[in-house]
Design a protein that fits this description.
Elements: H1 3-11, H2 16-24, H3 30-36, H4 42-54, E1 58-63, E2 69-74, H5 76-109
Antiparallel strand pairs: 1-2
C-alpha cells in the first residue's frame, strides 16, 4: 500500500475529519461532538473515535469520577493532520472559486 492510500484510509469515514476539526477547535468530550456534528449517531461517533485513537491521531483520557468522563485530544500526529487539513481547506476555496468562474462563463455563453 502506498503512503497516500494509507493516509486516506486512516481518515476515511464520514465523521473523522469533522471529529478532528472539532477537537482542534477545543471540543474534547463525545457529548460536545454529538451536539456539534449534525446527524451523527453515538455508536458511529464512538467507533470513529476508537479508529482515530487506534491510528494514533487522538489520545483518550478517562477520568475516574462519577459520572465517568472521557476526553480526547490530538496527538502530535493529529496536530500534523490539522496542518494538512488547513491546506486542503485552502485548496477547496480555490476549487470553489474555479467552479464559480466556470459557472459564470457558462451562463454568459447562454
Amino acid at each position: 500500500m502506498c503512503p497516500l492510500e494509507f493516509a486516506v484510509n486512516a481518515i476515511s469515514g464520514k465523521w473523522k475529519i469533522p471529529i478532528v476539526w472539532r477537537i482542534n477547535q477545543g471540543e474534547k468530550r463525545p457529548s460536545e461532538m454529538l451536539r456539534g456534528i449534525v446527524k451523527v449517531d453515538r455508536r458511529v461517533l464512538n467507533q470513529q473515535l476508537k479508529e482515530l485513537e487506534r491510528d494514533g491521531i487522538l489520545r483518550k483520557e478517562v477520568f475516574k469520577e462519577l459520572p465517568p468522563r472521557v476526553e480526547y485530544t490530538l496527538t502530535p500526529l493529529g496536530k500534523s493532520l490539522v496542518e494538512v487539513l488547513w491546506k486542503l481547506n485552502d485548496w477547496g476555496e480555490s476549487l470553489l472559486v474555479e467552479k464559480m468562474i466556470l459557472t459564470v462563463k457558462s451562463l454568459l455563453i447562454l
